[in-house]
Amino acid sequence: MRDSLVAAAFQLFLERGYEQTTVDDIVALAGVGRRSFFRYFPSKEDVVFPDHERCLADMTEFLGRSGDADDPVARVCDAARLVLRMYAQNPTFSVQRYRLTRRVPGLRTYELSVVWRYERALAEYLRGRFAGQRDGTLRADVIAAAVVAAHNNGLRSWLRSDGKSDATAEVDHALAHVQQAFGPSPDPAGPAAGSTEDDVVVVISRRGAPMWRVVQEIETTLGRDPD
Prior knowledge:
The protein is an all-alpha fold. It is built from 11 helices and no strands.
C-alpha cells in the first residue's frame, strides 16, 4: 500500500502539479482511505521522500557498528554512499523527484531539513570519535558538512544527467576530495611524502684525498660515528 500511495502521488504530481494535488486526490487514485495515507505519511511532503527515514536508520546503524580501527573519515564517506545507493536503486523516481523539488520551494525547504538530519548523524558519530581531541567538535562538524556537500555535488551531477551518468563514479570523485583533505596524516615515523627508502648521498672531497678520509666524510654525512 505504501508503494501504491507513492506511485499514485507522483502520477498526479506529474499530471496536475504538486500544489494542485491534494491528499484526497492521492487516496482516491490509490483506492484507499485518508487514514491509510496518514498511517504511512504524516504529510503530503513526506510522500515525496518516502525512503529517507529508512535510509537514515540504516546510516545510523552502519555508523554504530564502527570499530576503533576504522578510519572515521572513510567511515562517514561510506555512510554517505548508503544515501547514493538509495537514489540509484530507482533512477526514474529519483530524477522525477529532483525535478519536482526544483519547481516547488516548499519541497526544497523540506529536502534541506532531511539533508540536515543526515549531516547531524555524521557529526554525532565523528564527535564521539574525536572526543577529547583539540577542536574535536569543530573538526567533526566541518567534516560532516564537507561529506554532505561532496555527496550532494556528485548526486546532483548524476540527477542532472537524467540518471545516465555513473552515479558511483560521480560521488566517489567528490568524496575523494574530502578524504584527501581530512583523511589520516602520513606516519611521521615513516619516509617523507615523495621520498624513497633508498636515499642518495653525494659527498664532495678534494682530489687526492686518502680513501680513509673519503670514507670518514661519508660516514659523518650519514650520521654514523667513524670507527
